[in-house]
Design a protein that fits this description.
12 strands; alpha/beta; homodimer; three-stranded mixed β-sheet; 2 domains; UDP-galactose 4-epimerase, domain 1
Chain lengths: 329, 329
């Protein structure tokens, strides 16, 4: 089995590779070849260095996607994207990477299939950004996509292409809309959503964190481990169960910031929560208020996708996966 | 005021030009320049020949859209499209014209606006094909777009682009999803929806027509006159009323084939309906059953869009506009 991961240098890509490294038949059959590419050359886990073919690839460069697809990978994970903020500030780059790059990949598969039958599995990382306010209290799977960012627009377009190419039998595709991943490992970054992870990750290692919003702000979360689980499940699932509606919201946990803090205190004690400094930021509060916070994911759950049901679990997973089971709060 | 009509050689484009010819200030201000283009050179109504600049233009030819937009039209009607059947049978052509052509037009406007401020009104002809079965009994304006054709996919992508370009202030756009236009003038064609018009148009001039489906088939209709009215209204409407949700379903009449026939008999007598020959076609019946038939268009109505409320009116409009007020049944 040959696996291609496009966008392998990112956080989810790296964790997906770690998961494959830990269990070479995680996708059903043993993986014999692995191609991992990104705009910077990704580094494979040591256990995969024998089978991994790594490359620095920009999908919109003519011929780049064709070269990747010429090796006829059986499963393709498409995680590559310019993130929300950059797609908004750099119009051309966002459309070039998120729309044209995705289409170039899809077209390369179509062209390869015209030479000899070839219908790979394709798993696409989509986003809640396909939705735009105002929202109903819970967003159902039939709610329309009216993105309020260029990033969300590009993801919604990629979803439409994915559904049409799948309907035509060009590939067997699924688009999974990821919740906000929490607790994101690594250093705090400038994303408006960064604090959702910071307020848990930093106190767990004895560091201060800033909370810029009210404790009653609601959001939709899943752990990095669940996110990898979504991709693995999507790669193995019988997609005929999806019919023609190939894009769906992944399960997650709807929680208020106050619930995050209560869970932190239960797991790590009051000295952890004491490290959180409230410093209201109206700009962040406003951005976050415009995001969807609760979803009806009955469809994904019925198909076997699963995520955490308590923030205690999300914190424990972080302690297990990132802190070797220990925390220094 | 300078008007650009892209796709002006089609039925709706022609009727829109007739409407403008009949009232030069129909869009609010007198029209001083009119550019009309299509893949075949359109012929303007005689009354407009002094101000009309006609051209054979393919938007995806490099520079073609830029040349059109360099004249900085105030209002742009974008009606050009490869139709549903052809977009399905010719994958490349459908995407090239309906997706890349539309994007080329939008990009030309963006590039022109980078030279000096320029934010034209853009009215885009979208379609009920953005929706895909299964449907609720009535499709509301928040129902999701899961097209089951490449044509519908391309229209849905164009809608997303239109909303994003409008949100960014590149143009002031509106996408109007047209009902099935009935009674279409001209000869019967091979479209699966053709019979909806044939069974009225042909008997009105004493000719036979074939009815390939059950009389209880429901569909969603508006007259050509209403369609032109939608475009004119969309060109004049204060689009800030739409907020960021720039694409909407136009009003129409939900009617069964049986109601069409009853209206024909009321308007033209039993000798008209006697000309209809029932010849069930399971293929057509199946295609038509997969189409949406009823919509909640409260939003469009509140914005002032209006259509017929009885099939008697639809037939009378055809008699007035196409048969000089007389019918030969």
């Amino acid at each position: 089995m040959h696996i291609l991961v496009v966008g392998a240098a990112g956080m989810i890509g790296g964790k997906l590779l770690d998961r494959i490294a830990g269990q070479l038949d995680v996708l059903g059959e043993p993986i014999e070849a692995l191609t991992i590419v990104d705009v910077i050359e990704p580094i494979p886990p040591a256990a995969l260095s024998d089978i991994a073919n790594c490359g620095q690839v920009d999908l919109v460069v003519p011929g780049a996607a064709e070269t990747l697809i010429a090796a006829r990978p059986d499963v393709i994970f498409h995680l590559a994207a310019v993130v929300s903020g950059e797609a908004e500030s750099d119009f051309d780059k966002g459309y070039r990477v998120n729309m044209d790059g995705t289409r170039a990949l899809f077209e390369a598969i179509r062209k390869e299939g015209q030479k000899a039958p070839y219908v790979p599995r394709l798993v696409f990382a989509s986003s809640v950004a396909v939705f735009g306010a105002p929202f109903p209290e819970r967003i159902g799977d039939e709610f329309f996509t009216t993105p309020l960012t260029s990033y969300g627009t590009q993801k919604a377009i990629a979803e439409l292409l994915l559904a049409d190419y799948s309907r035509r039998g060009i590939f067997d595709g699924i688009g999974i809309r990821l919740p906000t991943i929490c607790i994101r490992p690594g250093a705090p970054n400038k994303a408006a959503s960064s604090f959702f992870s910071n307020i848990l990750r930093e106190p767990l290692v004895g560091k201060e964190a800033i909370l810029p919003v009210d404790v009653n702000v609601r959001h939709w979360f899943a752990s990095p481990r669940s996110a990898v689980g979504f991709f693995v499940h999507a790669a193995r699932l019988d997609l005929s169960l999806l019919g023609t509606r190939r894009n769906l919201m992944m399960p997650g946990l709807c929680a208020m910031v106050g619930e995050q803090l209560a869970a932190l205190e239960r797991v790590a004690g009051a000295r952890a929560t004491a490290l959180i400094r409230r410093q209201p930021d109206p700009v962040v509060q406003k951005i976050v208020s415009g995001w969807p916070s609760d979803f009806d994911t009955e469809r994904a759950r019925a198909l076997g996708f699963a995520a955490e049901t308590s923030f205690d679990d999300i914190i424990r997973i972080h302690i297990e996966d990132e802190l070797d089971g220990m925390f220094g709060g």
